[in-house]
Design brief:
The chain has seven helices and 17 strands. The protein is an alpha/beta fold and about 290 residues long. The protein folds into two domains: about 130 residues, Rossmann fold; about 140 residues, Probable inorganic polyphosphate/atp-NAD kinase, domain 2 (Tumour Suppressor Smad4, Sandwich), CATH 2.60.200. The strands form two sheets. Strands 1, 2, 3, 4, 5, 6, 7, 9, 10, 14 and 17 form an eleven-stranded mixed β-sheet that branches. A six-stranded antiparallel β-sheet has the order 13-12-11-8-15-16, with no helix packed on it. The relative contact order is 0.15.
């Protein structure tokens, strides 16, 4: 048993058969190796009796490692909470794509055993903080691992807003919305909207307008220490939203200001040794393999 990891937290997608099977196997395997195992309460009930059920904050406080079983969506949800704690997070892929979840669900034992023995690589990913200001007061805030998106509350239609970088006016924009993405999120929604891929080690943010009214409007990459301010036109006829990772929604009214900046929190990702970002990209995006 490793000297470094004593208490291990298990997190997964509730009511998902495949995830459930993997969680059961993981729980049994870790207990056999002598680890203390805590299971997030939303999935604990499905694992049977003698399971220690706790909430996500308890996993953050008491565990040395968290294992997330599911797809990237589950990883993002867990990461938004766990980034405030100094514990490593590793993913077992039960989803479709899995940029953040790299252990195979059917044969995790061999890879995980090596990680638990200290053979792993650590990678830090910064988070994005979104705040909505109304008349100078913070009305709502949240963090995102992937991206924050300003968009109309209902069906897609044109909205107007101004964009400032470090209080310098950049441009006004008429578009269906604006995506502000971290390097982690650059392979997600931002990529679908035509944004560039940012390698995870970059300290940068990418702003991608969604269906802009002018064709001269292109995605722009700015330093991650920049403060991005989106000022919503008072003329917008209805309420808008800022979505964090497509999950948490902050409501925005005409005239509000949205401040986006790098969070102090960082997600500590654990990868098996030999993890290669370009190998993952090639697999996920179907890029060509070596010619010779």
């Amino acid at each position: 048993m490793s000297t470094e990891f004593h208490t291990i937290g298990l997190i997964g997608k509730p009511h998902h058969q495949g995830t459930n099977l993997t969680l059961k196997r993981l729980h049994h395997w870790l207990k056999m190796q002598g680890y203390d195992v805590l299971v997030e309460e939303r999935v604990a009930a499905e694992l049977g009796k003698d399971v220690r059920a706790v909430d996500l904050l308890d996993i953050g406080e008491h565990c040395d490692l968290a294992i997330v079983v599911g797809g990237d969506g589950n990883m993002l949800g867990a990461a938004r909470v766990l980034a405030r704690f100094d514990l490593g997070v590793i993913g077992v892929n039960r989803g479709n794509l899995g940029f953040l979840t790299d252990l195979p669900p059917d044969a995790f034992e061999e890879s995980l055993a090596k990680v638990l023995d200290g053979e792993y690589a650590t990678e830090h990913r910064f988070l994005l903080e979104a705040e909505v200001y109304r008349h100078g007061e913070v009305k709502a805030s949240n963090t995102a691992v992937n991206e924050a998106v300003l968009h109309p509350g209902k069906i897609a239609h044109m909205i107007e807003f101004e964009v400032y970088i470090d209080n310098q006016f950049m441009y006004s924009q008429r578009a269906d919305g604006m995506i502000v993405s971290t390097p982690t999120g650059s392979t997600a929604y931002s990529l679908s909207a035509g944004g560039a891929i940012l390698t995870p080690n970059l300290e940068a943010l990418i702003l991608v307008p969604m269906f802009p009214h002018t064709l001269s409007c292109r995605p722009i990459v700015v330093d991650a220490s920049s403060t991005i301010k989106l000022v919503v036109s008072p003329e917008n006829g209805e309420n808008l939203e800022v979505s964090c990772d497509g999950h948490v929604t902050l409501s925005v009214m005409p005239g509000d200001e949205i401040i986006l900046r790098r969070s102090k929190e960082r997600l500590k990702l654990i990868h098996p040794k030999g993890h290669n970002y370009f190998h993952v990209l090639r697999n996920k995006l179907g890029w060509g393999s070596k010619l010779f």
